[in-house]
Design brief:
The chain is an alpha+beta fold. Helices cover 46% and strands 22% of the residues. The strands form four sheets. Strands 2-1-5-4-3 form a five-stranded antiparallel sheet. Strands 9-11-12-14-13 form a five-stranded mixed sheet, sandwiched between helices. The chain has a two-stranded antiparallel ribbon with strand order 6-7. The longest helix is centred in the first third of the chain and has 43 residues.
């Protein structure tokens, strides 16, 4: 039986079609199998890493974690993938992370977000906070931006350092505190000088009440400086680098009001606007009044130092949840570069800073503030203010 030309062509077309399908199927199978092998190798490489590894998108949503991360943070994979990275941070650190990301997004990715080794605190699933070192790098995949974080648990190293400091009663620790004392004496001396300058320049135009107020301020600052010297030089308050706190239950709102009274004339001299946002109800915290006062003075002095005439400084106090009182000092000065935020509270690699009027800083003030606040069981964080300058936040535990 003869096969017509049309039928023959149809048979050839069908055979060719099935051959093409077979080739495509084999290619897809080979490609898929190759990717499975690559993915398996990548997964094994990630899982043998001694560092906890995370990949997040630009919104901080976790895309991938390795086994070390699951073990370190005590989660399973399904509890983390698809969740915010803030889940692994204490509230105060999460707030700093959000501030950094907002700054990054606000700048429309004008700089690459690569963060070298930094020391911060993380949060396990059981609520335990622990110290970590973290390094963050930016990567691209399929035209999409991701961030890779490598984390090491440094709890053991921190404990070893702490025990070493306690066991070594040498002069190095005392020298550090003497340097800090020298730094903090510059603040009251500078305030006395500024207040005296107001009297010299404007006393003839002032009434008796205004003159008396400034003289009283000079006396209060001098008394505070003398108390600072006698307290910090006491051997009972310098113990191997640790701070021996003298705690009192204090209304932090009234405490801030009292400290602010010393600065109003100084800000007036430089034509800086001071805005206060303080609650009417008291908030009580267990604090060492002298040391917390030094922290507030340092922050207000730093804000003033980097502000020009006509700038603004704002201070606010409010409850953060039920556990913490938040003290926030902001200014409209030049601000802090995002890459420098994590360096502010470290003694190493600090440089002297110069204020808007040529004031000289030692670089000791903020690290000293950090030591004081952490010794109270609190946190101190830095970021960018909506005023355009720097923002420093202090978290102190509310007393029961």
């Amino acid at each position: 039986m003869e096969i017509s030309g049309h039928v023959l062509l149809l048979i050839v077309a069908i055979v060719a079609f099935f051959l093409i399908i077979l080739i495509i199927f084999k290619s897809v199978f080979w490609f898929s199998n190759e990717h499975k092998i690559i993915d398996s190798l990548n997964s094994q490489i990630l899982d043998v890493s001694t560092s906890a590894l995370f990949i997040t998108d630009i919104n901080g949503i976790i895309q991938m974690v390795n086994k070390t991360a699951l073990k370190m943070f005590k989660y399973n994979r399904y509890e983390l993938v698809g969740s915010s990275i803030n889940k692994l941070m204490p509230e105060t650190i999460a707030s700093m992370h959000d501030t950094l990301m907002q700054t990054y997004l606000k700048n429309e990715y004008k700089y690459q977000l690569n963060v070298s080794l930094r020391e911060i605190y993380a949060l396990r699933s059981n609520g335990e906070e622990f110290p970590i070192q973290i390094q963050i790098n930016e990567i691209w995949y399929n035209d999409t931006r991701y961030f890779v974080g490598a984390i090491s648990d440094i709890s053991a190293e921190k404990q070893a350092i702490k025990e070493s400091i306690k066991s070594e009663k040498d002069s190095a620790n005392k020298d550090k505190f003497l340097s800090l004392l020298s730094h903090d004496l510059r603040t009251p001396v500078g305030k006395i000088q500024s207040l005296s300058e107001i009297l010299i320049e404007d006393m003839e135009s002032m009434d008796k009440t205004e003159v008396s107020e400034i003289i009283q301020n000079i006396y209060d600052v001098s008394e505070s400086a003398l108390y600072l010297i006698s307290s910090l030089l006491s051997s009972q308050r310098i113990k191997g680098g640790d701070i021996d706190l003298k705690l009192k239950n204090v209304d932090i709102v009234q405490f801030i009001k009292t400290t602010l009274s010393e600065f109003k004339n100084l800000y007036k001299l430089k034509n800086i606007t001071l805005k206060e946002s303080l609650p009417e109800k008291p908030i009580f915290c267990e604090i060492d009044e002298l040391l917390i006062n030094q922290v507030i003075i340092n922050l207000l002095t730093n804000a003033e130092k980097f502000c020009q005439k006509g700038d603004e400084i704002a201070i606010s106090v409010y409850k953060k949840g039920s556990d913490y009182a938040l003290i926030c000092v902001e200014d409209s000065g030049p601000g802090i570069p995002p890459e420098d935020i994590f360096e502010l509270f470290q003694y190493k690699e600090l440089e002297k800073s110069t204020g808007s009027n040529g004031e000289i800083g030692t670089g000791f003030g903020l690290p000293f503030c950090h030591e004081i606040i952490t010794s109270h069981g609190g946190r101190i964080l830095a970021g960018s203010s909506n005023l355009g300058g720097a923002k420093i936040e202090i978290y102190l535990k509310i007393s029961e």
